[in-house]
Amino acid sequence: MRKTFLPLLGTLTAALMAANFSLAIPITGSVDFSGGASLNGTTLDNATQVLTWTSVNVTPFGVTIGSALDSTINPGDAVAMTGPWSFNSGRSALWMVGGFVFDLQTSGVIEQTVDFISVKGYGMLSGNGFDPTPGTWFFTSQGAGIGNGNFSFSAATLAQTTAVPDGGTTALLFGAACIGLVVSTRRKSLVV
């Protein structure tokens, strides 16, 4: 009995250590911005990038209430934007607010006319002790330029949490299967 119990105890201990019960905490929610952007074109149909950003703030209802982003981002907060940004490329630290940073990895124009542009991109949202979380970036501008390529814009970033952490359940099930295998092997060796 003692010879059977010690390997089982060792296997169970290893399984529990592997589980470690560490939970991944992804960023949840979305945040919306608005402000000004100086584009390299005088109309939206010939613009290819934002040269500089001006007066970018979180919109009045721009943070998902009760989300991870809501923990430190408030409506009206100033947003630090990094420029220049080409519509068909990524940009590290594209925006920063409330201790969160969004690194845009890739983006592309969805629609572009003389008075409208829509750009969509993907990147990684991180900050405030949360696990880096994939996010989607949306940028739109419409209407005539204020002059010399200055346009108003709106943008949003949506955290894309698709994976749900299991809290070590998989490792525990694997450990239980190992224990079952050891017990089964021991019983067969006693019968022979």
Write up what this structure looks like.
By secondary structure, this protein is α+β, with helices and mostly antiparallel strands. The protein has helices spanning 2-19, 169-191, and strands at residues 30-39, 49-63, 80-81, 85-86, 91-97, 100-113, 116-127, 130-142, 150-159. It has a domain at 30-159. The chain contains two helices and nine strands. Strands 3-5-6-7-8-9-1-2-4 form a nine-stranded antiparallel β-sheet, with no helix packed on it. Strand 7 and strand 8 (130-142) form a beta hairpin. The protein is globular. Mean pLDDT is 81; it is low at 163-173.
Global geometry: globular
Query: Main sheet, how many strands, which sense, barrel?
Result: 9 strands, antiparallel
Strand line-up of the largest beta sheet: 3-5-6-7-8-9-1-2-4
Total helical segments: 2
The H-and-E topology, N to C, reads as HEEEEEEEEEH
Structural class: alpha+beta
Q: Output the radius of gyration.
A: 26 Å
Determine the fraction of residues in helical runs and give it as a percent range.
10-25%
Beta fraction: 35-45%
pLDDT averaged over residues:
81
